[in-house]
């Protein structure tokens, strides 16, 4: 079979086209090496995504259709993402831990034309999809099987990427809100492309002529960190990835001498530090360790430097913006900070009146730049609320910027809990708990945890005369919600502490149950 010829479309801002243009000249070199011993070339990515793109277009679904995907991590799932971009559709990645109540909402809200799920979930996912009016449901498994690949195997392996403008919608990432209703952050081709190009330069990605970078990819691919920051970073640099289907600290350490870049959430660094095989020698070939998605504890930051001789680079981003700030690659990386605003990103810290605060003072973080999303899917009122009159996005995070320009995140005005790199919103959990029989009210707070950074604790008040069991409450949540959202502990109490205005004092609950969690 002849080599596919890349179609140069300088007038198009299609994210796939930008990634494809960065593929190395030798398409038969390895692009992805998996932990199961499989090797995928750049030609495989080109051909596989072409066949999937042609198959999707053969379904005659309208332009701008959403392709909802809830599958286990695989290179074929990566090809599906690339195919969706190249065909001009909108990719909708969904956490593999989502259960029926969550999936029902996402499918009804996004109205995808195609849903792709794992075969073992096909029964209940397809039922939800067909009830919502989705015409096509396919399966894709991490062992290279499934109806999607069976159907796409008959499609042509050449495809001309769709012409897209920079502000055309490329991806919807759902991020829950404090009201409990999830919001779909709409990211354009331009949002993602601008961020990928900035990070390529800012983090010093090395070209093949400079020796080339190799990325250990140990993250899930259903959120910004694993899908956009890591994968876009490698692909737009033409760099090989060593692919971990699931995080295994021993496998990662084994691969460190063959790699140069590793990206992880703090929990991964904590777990790597428990391995005796983590030494300066095994890390001597590494160029860069990056952490994000949750706060990196100072103890972890210092322990990593002492064990490996490397200083972790911590950065800060959101589903709505991809990356916003980063500690410098070539300058001082300060523990406890997320560094400087990236080139092109305007960041300000303001008080409740919207006025800039002096350096070192705490305030609300607001941002503006080409990476910032256009708004929330089908939520014009919410979108308007989250942007200032002069176009800055209200992140909902609270922080400070010191006199040297380093930004620190000190809290979250929306009570967000980040557990093991995943966002957990108390209001969503409280709404489920409050609907359980015998529950009067509840409060969910985040407390420190050595492994996950933070975990949720549920504090529940029963109705008069009702006896509630903590274990039953947690079991009910596990049956309805993704496991990472379920609080690690539940306490039944007679009442919740309130201030003079009747507002629950979650700060007191955090203090009280942080002690309980640490026992």
Topology (SSEs and partners):
Elements: H1 15-21, E1 30-34, E2 39-41, H2 42-58, E3 66-70, H3 75-87, E4 90-93, H4 100-110, E5 114-117, H5 122-131, E6 136-139, H6 147-152, E7 169-175, E8 183-188, H7 189-202, E9 214-217, H8 224-235, E10 240-243, H9 249-255, E11 261-264, H10 266-272, E12 288-291, H11 298-308, E13 313-318, E14 322-326, E15 340-341, E16 346-350, E17 363-368, E18 375-376, H12 380-386, E19 393-401, E20 407-412, E21 417-419, E22 422-424, H13 426-434, E23 439-449, E24 453-462, H14 470-480, E25 489-492, H15 506-518
Parallel strand pairs: 1-10, 3-4, 3-5, 5-6, 9-10, 9-11, 11-12, 12-13, 24-25
Antiparallel strand pairs: 1-2, 7-8, 8-18, 13-14, 14-15, 16-17, 17-19, 19-20, 21-22, 23-24
Helix pairs in contact: 2-3, 4-5, 7-8
Describe this structure in words.
By secondary structure, this protein is of the alpha/beta class. The chain contains 15 helices and 25 strands. The strands form six sheets. Strands 2-1-10-9-11-12-13-14-15 form a nine-stranded mixed β-sheet. Helix 7 packs across helix 8 (about 225-235). The longest helix is centred in the first third of the chain and has 17 residues, at about 40-60. The model is unreliable at about 1-10 (pLDDT under 50).
